[in-house]
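hey so u asked for the seq, here:
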Amino acid sequence: MTSKRAVLSFRIGSSLGAAGLLLAGATLNGSGHEGWSTAFAAAAGVLAVGAGVLHREWRLSIPLAGTAFVLTVVIAQFNPRQGDLVLQVVGLALLGAGGAIGGLAYRSLADTIDRQGRDLQLKHRAFLAATSDAEAAAPAGDMSALTSNIARQVGADIACCYLATGDSRQFVPQLPGVGLDGLHAMTINRSSNGSGAMLTSVEAGRTYSAVGNGVLKELFNYVPDDLQVAGALAAPMPIGDRIGGFILLGSRVGPFTDDDRRLA
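ran it, structure tokens below
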């Protein structure tokens, strides 16, 4: 929450700062101009703003800034009554600074929109994994198809869905799952205060991730000695206001990423 407030404060502050600089710069840049010189001064101001916005691209920003300065000096040569040249140059500098700060605020907003767009794409992929592929591959209610599709999406070597019983007292594994050869999945009794870090997290509706075989030992009564899991993830499956089950995913390659957690 604090991070989000800091980002919001930065965007509001930078936007207000950019607006103030642009207003002050335009006022100084346009001071003393009359007639035709006003149009040229406006053009120089636009070039200065462009130089500020493109300050990261120095091959573009330097020529723009130089053109704006030269144009302002040329106006002074042909129109001696055009006002204080120093103030107008200061105005160009303020316009450039306003453009730079406004550009930063815009890029920050654009990055956020792009990141949210990628999140939506990941959620869409998860939806396709849970519906379209499963419907095409197997009859409705076939949890093995759902399990295999989610495992394929996140690149998991081990996957097993657990569904709550009708009385909500247990989680029952939906076999055969993926990569469970040699593993003996067992029915898990639910407890109001949880029974282990993984189940406590699932019951609270949070995705749980860990490294090593610890999670497997909570869910399987036999784990072969030669089976080593580098990363494990348990994602709850909410149904309305209750937890209808969860899916366990395991990777022998490495821990799961944030994108994998979103997909699961």
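The radius of gyration is 31 Å. The first strand starts at residue 158 and ends at 164.
lmk if thats what u needed
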